[in-house]
Amino acid sequence: xxxxxxxxxxxxxxxxxxxxxxxxxxxxxxxxxxxxxxxxxxxxxxxxxxxxxxxxxxxxxxxxxxxxxxxxxxxxxxxxxxxxxxxxxxxxxxxxxxxxxxxxxxxxxxxxxxxxxxxxxxxxxxxxxxxxxxxxxxxxxxxxxxxxxxxxxxxxxxxxxxxxxxxxxxxxxxxxxxxxxxxxxxxxxxxxxxxxxxxxxxxxxxxxxxxxxxxxxxxxxxxxxxxxxxxxxxxxxxxxxxxxxxxxxxxxxxxxxxxxxxxxxxxxxxxxxxxxxxxxxxxxxxxxxxxxxxxxxxxxxxxxxxxxxxxxxxxxxxxxxxxxxxxxxxxxxxxxxxxxxxxxxxxxxxxxxxxxxxxxxxxxxxxxxxxxxxxxxxxxxxxxxxxxxxxxxxxxxxxxxxxxxxxxxxxxxxxxxxxxxxxxxxxxxxxxxxxxxxxxxxxxxxxxxxxxxxxxxxxxxxxxxxxxxxxxxxxxxxxxxxxxxxxxxxxxxxxxxxxxxxxxxxxxxxxxxxxxxxxxxxxxxxxxxxxxxxxxxxxxxxxxxxxxxxxxxxxxxxxxxxxxxxxxxxxxxxxxxxxxxxxxxxxxxxxxxxxxxxxxxxxxxxxxxxxxxxxxxxxxxxxxxxxxxxxxxxxxxxxxxxxxxxxxxxxxxxxxxxxxxxxxxxxxxxxxxxxxxxxxxxxxxxxxxxxxxxxxxxxxxxxxxxxxxxxxxxxxxxxxxxxxxxxxxxxxxxxxxxxxxxxxxxxxxxxxxxxxxxxxxxxxxxxxxxxxxxxxxxxxxxxxxxxxxxxxxxxxxxxxxxxxxxxxxxxxxxxxxxxxxxxxxxxxxxxxxxxxxxxxxxxxxxxxxxxxxxxx
Length: 856
Hints:
Layout: E1 10-18, H1 22-32, E2 36-37, H2 52-74, H3 91-138, H4 163-169, E3 173-181, H5 185-196, E4 200-206, E5 211-212, E6 219-220, E7 222-230, H6 232-244, E8 248-250, H7 256-312, E9 316-317, E10 323-331, H8 335-349, E11 356-360, H9 377-386, H10 397-412, H11 415-430, H12 435-438, H13 442-449, H14 451-468, H15 495-500, H16 506-511, H17 543-576, H18 580-611, H19 623-632, H20 645-677, H21 728-752, H22 755-779, H23 783-825, H24 842-855
Helix pairs in contact: 1-7, 1-8, 2-3, 2-7, 3-7, 5-6, 7-24, 9-10, 10-14, 10-22, 10-23, 11-14, 17-18, 17-21, 17-22, 18-20, 18-21, 20-21, 22-23
């Protein structure tokens, strides 16, 4: 694993790949994941590149494999895991694999098509059988259920559907029978009445069972209908209406004998279709089972092959068109591995001329590579969400591992809540190899990916909870309180002490609503609590005032230390990039401005804690008043914290005032001096530059004067940088904006760290309210029914604790901790204007393939 403090040192390498070995060499590089390819054909369209035909062939194979996966999934055949990541197929086996897949696709499509046709025919025959069975009952209806006609009185006792009767009438009676979906019956009947003007007789009956639709495969309820009509024109209208409503129309038998013959033929055909359909399904399942054995490995192989050809399309040919030239970014430590991969690819292809590589100098800024593991990956993602670090600048993720969970815990400090979070994260860590967790839903997967962040946040919350002595809003007396209540009674003191001190007696205890402990009385305060806040403060009425004062001062101290540390990290950037003038003209004035004002504020807070005791607490001056007087210079003498305070404050204020013009004008004037009269010193560096493009340092130095190795070494802060134009006004404006932002930011950022106090107070008060409204009520119920009420109260308390105090409050503290790192800490030294190193690696493709396959 590389250093987490800075990104890896990169170099630009040029690969010379023989045409016959290029595929095998890139396959070996993809397995190792060492390099990032540069596109040398940016001006060439994707459809005009050399290997576009091979890419299309891979896409065709990919389409076939997606179809196979869909059919296998539809048949409920489990996909075997097989080899996790098979290598890319050799070129000599690609055509054979393509022929096999195409043949398998054609066979599957034919068998599937025949199966669907057989299934559709079977469903139609079953519908026809049900239609014949139901319509048979329609003929048995008597005429009393049908309307009578005055024109034929002699037939009033005969059925209107009797064929002999209709023949005597001489009318041409027709029938249309079939099935219609349940939801279309009313509209269908209404349309028949309006279109045929009542010259039809419609009879319905609902099927007892639901049938599958032959077209859609959906199981729905059906109605059997029989329509009798007179005349051919009416018959044509009826048939068109049936087509419009997607009715399944079947021939209606004219006689009972014909009906019986049709029924017998249908039963025979249905039995034959069942037999053929079962054999077809068995054969189809056999084909799919055989295909499922290798489909997963072939999916990975095809997409690896497609990725290789995509990379080959980014290469350029030499003048002879026999050698491919590629340019790649590669970490310097991985250059031996790159050479071995090229040798391995050349050996596998059997080429007589091996492929080789060499490094080339460049002034382009390399991509940023920071190697992480499963523990540091989550913290690096937090930093990268702000911006990928510039090449070789200090990486904040190393310090975020500690500072982020600690600042979160300051806002979330509760021993009980932190322990629950720690147990949840520990459960995820112990089961991190479980496949369901890594492939779970988005929210749970987000928790799983940040399991180590949650683990440290819970652990630090336990620590700060012990400091606050807060466990589900209640204090824990682990070491015994340092306050002694019995020492306040007058009976425990002599008469002289009783006259001199305000002590308690029986009357005081009976008539006083509140009692005050005086630490000046001997024996009352026996010393500080060994670890954290004394538990007796949980009973005090001024508990909130005491904790507010403590947490507010603690927030200011932590914030100033955090920001000062960020400014100091900027010095490491200046040293690495050989810009020492930025240390003297930027970093040192920034540190002086920060420490002379806000560092002195920390000094006053700590000095007041140490210098004043309970006896002299009433004489202690206000820190806020003393801090304001530092800038106002009051005419009257004030009682300060220590002797000579006024002189010290004047010196600090003078240093602050002097640092401001240096911060505003120092760097622009120095660069102007270099431009006008001095050459640029330092060690000549060939290759890429370490500064960002269009940075202010690039336009600060002379472009017309070349650096010589014998230059003066006293000014190593300057490097050779090509300059197009020196614009003093732009540099001055940029530095002025930066200085104003820093000076005002020191004030606003210090105030921003008060969110540590505010969220800690809100979390403690919300926890206290939840305890008072639920647990206290449940614990105060009469003992007879208290047990039965306490169980649901505890369950409700646990649910609200998890969803409100752990999830909602935890998310709020998490977001505020991110803001403190992004805005208040990282802007002191972190630019975050780099590009991430994305290697050509098959390991990145494999996880994506499995996800896509599961979706398919």
